[in-house]
């Protein structure tokens, strides 16, 4: 058994104090490193400029708003405005990477940093406001229901005990789920799947944004939009990741500038007027 002498006790105390000092010093160093790291955090706009490209989420199958043409190029109303945003942000409209998205994953793409901005015909709702930050709206929209001319649906009551086709994560999905549980919904991820299902007779009708179904019916004369305005009128706006105030503020200022310059109206004339003709007054559609 070892006997502790006064000298041994002094050595033990000295070693303990030295150890404590080293730990404290190490913690202080780590704290300083963390502080240094936090001060070096790059803002979203700085990161976009550093990357030399802005990633914008758009639809690939929702003409005339966002779609791929025969050459595989992105076209549509949303795309036209997104190009101007890229030009104002990076000085070149070609410095944009269009990321193809679907209605159900628009929020997740922002959360996961797969995109910087969503320009995918995104309707503003209270639920979505909780998870993303919407910028200034640029379109007005409501719901519409398209059906075969041979069996037109002109009233929601006609859909009882019938199958209604919708896209997952859309305003139509939410509206009918909440307010009309008596209607059976059949849901699809992509617009092309949903409209193909209507053509195949897998549903009595299809509900989506009225602007979309009106455009689709013009291209498919055997179908009619029997319900042209359903629910409350909503707004469509681009969105950024929740809490990204810097990018949101910049985007709002840019959208105001584009509206004043007539860019949004020009985008309408180029992409939407050829589809709607004189059936829609642009003042009833655009938010400028």
TrEMBL record:
<feature type="signal peptide">
    <location>
        <begin position="1"/>
        <end position="24"/>
    </location>
</feature>
<keyword id="KW-0732">Signal</keyword>
<comment type="similarity">
    <text>Belongs to the bacterial solute-binding protein 3 family.</text>
</comment>
<feature type="domain" description="Solute-binding protein family 3/N-terminal">
    <location>
        <begin position="53"/>
        <end position="275"/>
    </location>
</feature>
<dbReference type="InterPro" id="IPR051455">
    <property type="entry name" value="Bact_solute-bind_prot3"/>
</dbReference>
<dbReference type="Pfam" id="PF00497">
    <property type="entry name" value="SBP_bac_3"/>
</dbReference>
<protein>
    <recommendedName>
        <fullName>Solute-binding protein family 3/N-terminal domain-containing protein</fullName>
    </recommendedName>
</protein>
<dbReference type="InterPro" id="IPR018313">
    <property type="entry name" value="SBP_3_CS"/>
</dbReference>
<dbReference type="InterPro" id="IPR001638">
    <property type="entry name" value="Solute-binding_3/MltF_N"/>
</dbReference>
<keyword id="KW-0813">Transport</keyword>
């Amino acid at each position: 058994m070892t006997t502790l002498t006064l000298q041994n006790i002094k050595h033990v105390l000295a070693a303990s104090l030295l150890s404590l000092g080293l730990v404290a010093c190490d913690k202080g160093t780590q704290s300083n490193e963390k502080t240094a790291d936090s001060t070096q955090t790059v803002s979203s706009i700085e990161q976009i400029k550093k990357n030399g490209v802005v990633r914008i989420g758009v639809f690939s199958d929702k003409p005339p708003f966002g779609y791929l043409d025969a050459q595989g190029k992105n076209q549509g109303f949303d795309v036209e405005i997104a190009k101007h945003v890229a030009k104002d942000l990076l000085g070149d409209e070609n410095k944009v990477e269009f990321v193809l998205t679907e209605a159900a994953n628009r929020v997740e793409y922002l959360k996961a940093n797969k995109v910087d901005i969503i320009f995918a015909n995104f309707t503003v709702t209270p639920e979505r406001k909780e998870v993303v930050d919407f910028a200034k709206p640029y379109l007005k929209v409501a719901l519409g229901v398209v059906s075969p001319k041979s069996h037109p649906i002109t009233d929601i009551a006609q859909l009882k005990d019938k199958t209604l086709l919708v896209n997952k994560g859309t305003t139509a999905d939410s509206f009918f789920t909440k307010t009309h549980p008596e209607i059976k919904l059949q849901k699809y991820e992509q617009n092309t799947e949903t409209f193909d299902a209507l053509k195949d007779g897998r549903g009595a009708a299809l509900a989506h944004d009225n602007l979309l179904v009106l455009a689709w019916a013009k291209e498919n004369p055997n179908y009619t939009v029997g319900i042209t305005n359903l629910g409350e009128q909503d707004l469509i706006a681009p969105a950024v990741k929740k809490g990204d105030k810097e990018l949101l503020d910049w985007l709002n200022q840019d959208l105001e500038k584009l509206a004043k310059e007539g860019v949004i109206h020009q985008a309408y004339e180029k992409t939407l007027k050829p589809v709607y003709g004189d059936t829609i007054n642009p003042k009833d559609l655009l938010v400028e």
